[in-house]
Amino acid sequence: MSMISITSDEFDNASAQQARSAVVLVSGAAIVLCAAALLVYGATSRAVAVPSFARQTGQPCMSCHTAFPELTPFGRRFKLGGYTLGGGKGIEDGAPPIAAMLVPTFARTRKGQDAPRTTDTHTNNNLVLQQASLFYAGKIYGNLGAFVQTTYDRASQHFMLDNTDIRYADTASFGGLDALYGVSLHNGPTVQDVWNTTPAWGYPYVSSSLAPQFSPPGAQIEGNFAAGAVGTTAYVMLNDTVYLEAGGYHPMSLALRRALGNPCANNAVRVNTQLAIDAIVNPLNNPPFYPWYGPQGLCSADSLAGFAPYWRVAIEPNWGPHSLMVGAFGFYPRVNPGSVGGFGVDSYSDLGLDAQYQYIDGPHALTLKLSRIVENQNLQSTFNQGLAVNVLGLPANLAANGGSTNLRNTLTSFRATAQYVWDHTIAGSVSYFNVHGTNDAVLYGGNSLTNSPNGKGLTFELSYMPFNKGGPSVWPWANAKIGVQYTHYLQMFGGNGNFDGMFHNASDNDTVLLYSWIAF
Fold it and tell me: pTM (2 decimals)?
């Protein structure tokens, strides 16, 4: 329910000194930020990840989270209930549901990138205020509540409407069944989901927007329409155990996406020479804006070509300190790649299976998560665009997605994560990810000697949450998380060494991320 990312193979003395300096710098920044909170707000009491939820419910952070933003069973019910649970201070008490968040980060890859991601960043060793967010998070009126996040990214100098979920919820009893039901209006697939196994709120909870240089491809549900579609779903939780949800996602025009600050919408026309194609096949295309670079480079401007159905089922029994969820979900988008029309549409079928086990008792909190998404792709538009630019004698990479060799492909994304939290204060986690799919010379050949999308790796993380059991007394809802994360890439685009023929190795992308996550 809350938010919610080495310049050589061997360290020489100079680079080691540079790394030590960066650690000192970021650690100092984290200490300063936390100390500032203490100086302003006084001695300690308690905290929660989104402080406005804490004020409204009167509950400590550990009621809703293990290590935020990962939810507990109570936190999941709070979200399903429409963010309206009281017990603390509400609007009527002069406490509007407003909160803020800062996420300064430092990212270092084993080898520097070929070029800076933005005009304000470097090829390596980037210290940046990655996120500055404002929230409306809590009750609006009656059974209507909302989680609305707006975010500014200093690196790209970009302001946007981030994850948003507005919902109405109520309860009823019929035929021996107790039901918690509701409707949700949100802005991207799985933003409304209450388990941390689905993409919008899945691990890793924080990652660098500037590194690594290469990342494995993902399924459509894994962020391609984040903040880029209008979602409407209805849901019900029966007897606090069986969860059912159905609805879908509606297209959001490029003009609206730009108005809301969606950065990928700025790349509908990616290079000036593509204007020649647009003049023929898409004369109404909006003009280009300043491009935004994400973890995989220039991000996609794909748009939905109509209503995209979505469904979700899950069973979650809870007994004592134990909670077990087994579920499935499906997403079926029809897509205009690059928001270019006239070539048909790409059609996708994303089927996900997920499971989550939690043990929360006293000072111990253990969470185990599994997620597997299988995507079947019918790339009619991508394939035809590739043919069209070749017929025109233009470079194939001017097509929205560069074209494709195959009309039909598959892609499978798997992740397994284990996290342990001790005394609601110190959290450690390890996560394994694996992506594999159909070889495609045009779609992946630019990054792969074997024309493969396959990639895998491991992520390790250690974090400290000083306010989980006690925040500043004058402002007891403040929260903080200070962490270090290391991602090691075992394979990238089907290879390890020189996977793209340009002497890039998978381990070149190994990333150390230091972060401070401050909410107030």
Answer: 0.85
